[in-house]
Amino acid sequence: MPEFPRVYAHRGASSLAPENTMAAFVKAMEVGARRFEFDVDIMGDGTLLVIHDQTLDRTTNGSGPYYDLGFSDLRRLDAGAWFSPAYRFERIPELADVVEFLNRYPQMGANLEIKPCRGGRDLRDRLVGSVAVAVDALEDPSRLLVSSFDHDALTRFHAARPAVDLGWLMDRDGRPGPDWRSGASELGCRAVHPDDTGLTEAGVAEMTAAGFEVNVWTVDDPDRARELAGWGVAGVFTNRPQDFPASALAR
């Protein structure tokens, strides 16, 4: 059994560069990570943008939701100055930018998280369909894992691209949601992604016994990651890939 799980740089190397930007993905690669996680949602005109929140406030110089905005608005946003003046003028990437990056650096793998779209059913359906088309441009789709908290969206994506591996994102304890075991099994997910908060060795054993790879979010302490590896966890999402040994980053 490996000493450490494989490492996904969460939203890129998000402690070293502004999250969900090309700078963060490049920085993840520079510190030795071979996998990163990123989030995708959709704007009103169909532009697929890489962002975590449903509003622009936290990670850009914009404000409010983006579901009524489009590409021309996206180009005017600064997604780096909030993090550091060194990243002033860093842009929000489009999904196509990340696909191009993955094709340029075939040693890199990624977890694409489809965000729960708050722009209405039609826009959510367009999000799923557009992501399916976008990933067709990947030269090596085996290096991609697609996950979501919106399990209906994940089901729709699977129907469109059944060959792409899936990760079932599990809600935090106490949140309502479908049973992970039946849902992930019926969808044929390769992996389940639980929150580290409250996670137990027995819980991991239950997930692995059900036949799933377990990838845990969000683990910034290498000692905790080592413990999770001993429990059978396959991967962790971390904001601090630079703190992990090269052997873990290269897995």
From TrEMBL:
Domain GP-PDE: 5-248
Gene3D superfamilies named in the record: Phosphatidylinositol (PI) phosphodiesterase
PANTHER family: GLYCEROPHOSPHODIESTER PHOSPHODIESTERASE, CYTOPLASMIC (PTHR46211:SF1), GLYCEROPHOSPHORYL DIESTER PHOSPHODIESTERASE (PTHR46211)
Name of the protein described by the UniProt record: Glycerophosphoryl diester phosphodiesterase
Species for this entry: Schaalia naturae
